[in-house]
Design brief:
By secondary structure, this protein is α+β, with helices and mostly antiparallel strands. Helices cover 46% and strands 12% of the residues.
């Protein structure tokens, strides 16, 4: 949920593009620096230093990030992030002139709204949410939806059951899947309160009341089970489906035009994107409507062609508010529990206003 698009690798050698940029960038930078100095004796040492720095950066970068992405994050953390958050924006010169009065210098600092240098959208890559469509829009314009998968109980599954799931997934990937999927797994506290409610309802059933032994066992289970499940975690699985703005211009699903094939070329493929996007002159609303329709079709395809073909499995699509809560859990690093997901969204503004009467 914190990345845009899929990982790009160089064909044949299967090396991440970000690592190649770093391995070649540092030596080339050393070569250019040596040429600018005008001293030929420094060219080779600078190139050698560049090679060493490139290899060291690739080796030191985390396994889940390319060297280029890691160096960008390091630069952003140490060089561009704000050291101090003021209650006056830096670009507001008029407010800065009177900042001493606002900050109450020398005394207690009053609570005043402030404008930080970083936005939530810049950190999460989420541009906006579209209520009613169960969709969020990323910063690059791509629409995303998530399906929560309930795989059922596989504790006593045999090898044939696991092989069947593998065959279903392989058939779906080979025959139906022509777009990117994103898999996300997280945990939440086991819903002990729901378990107690179910047991209480079961104790009130007539067949339980007529069987004293079973009723006593169920009551004992109700007393002991919550203590055993204290601190237990429940795993949740999600499948993310996405649609990019460029995909709504494709007229044919199974056969690409020559221009569309050229866009898939490594390194220079993006140069041919304008020749594809100019095929139709669509308004922003028309593009969004087509993206929503295509996203709905892909979500139904995942549910019908993949999930429903596995016995005991089910999936449901998250609402826009549930997507918002999932992002909150991911970025805040803690669990947010609401009886109703819609309660997490404020229905009224934090600061209200009221029209004054003439006599006030």
């Amino acid at each position: 949920m914190d990345e845009l698009g899929e990982e790009n690798r160089i064909p044949i050698v299967n090396v991440d593009e970000g690592d190649v940029y770093v391995l070649l960038g540092f030596p080339i930078g050393g070569l250019l620096l040596g040429g600018l100095t005008g001293m030929d004796t420094l060219v080779f040492p600078l190139v050698l230093v560049g090679i060493v720095c490139g290899v060291a950066s690739v080796y030191a970068s985390p396994s889940h990030l390319s060297a280029a992405t890691w160096l960008t994050d390091v630069y952003r953390y140490y060089c561009t992030r704000p050291r101090t958050t003021y209650n006056v924006p830096e670009n507001d010169e008029e407010a800065l002139e009177h900042s001493n009065d606002i900050k109450n210098d020398g005394g207690l600092i009053n609570y005043t709204p402030f404008a930080p240098d970083e936005r939530t959208q810049d950190l999460t890559n989420i541009k906006r949410a579209w209520p009613g469509t169960r969709t969020i829009q990323r910063a690059d314009g791509t629409m995303e939806a998530f399906l929560e998968v309930d795989p059922g109980n596989m504790d006593f599954a045999m090898s044939g059951d696991w092989a069947h799931i593998q065959d279903v997934a392989a058939e779906f990937a080979n025959n139906e899947l022509d777009y990117n999927l994103k898999f996300h797994a997280t945990t939440r506290s086991f819903p002990v309160a729901d378990l107690i409610t179910q047991i209480d309802d079961r104790l009130e059933d007539e067949d339980v009341s007529e069987n004293p032994i079973f009723e006593e066992l169920l009551a004992e289970y109700r007393e002991q089970r919550p203590q055993e499940l204290d601190g237990a975690q429940q795993i949740r699985y999600f499948i993310g489906v996405q649609v990019s703005p460029l995909e709504v211009y494709n007229r044919y699903r199974d056969e690409e035009s020559p221009a569309e094939k050229l866009t898939t070329l490594p390194v220079i493929g993006f140069l041919f994107n304008p020749f594809v996007t100019r095929r139709e002159d669509l308004s922003d609303a028309q593009v969004r409507a087509r993206m929503f329709t295509k996203l709905d079709r892909r979500c139904r395809a995942v549910q019908t062609e993949l999930i429903q073909n596995v016995p005991g499995w089910s999936a449901r699509r998250l609402s826009t508010v549930e997507l918002f809560l999932l992002a909150m859990d991911f970025w805040n690093g803690e669990e947010h529990t609401y009886d109703d997901a819609s309660n997490a969204v404020r229905e009224r503004p934090v600061i209200g206003n009221q029209r004054r009467d003439n006599n006030e």
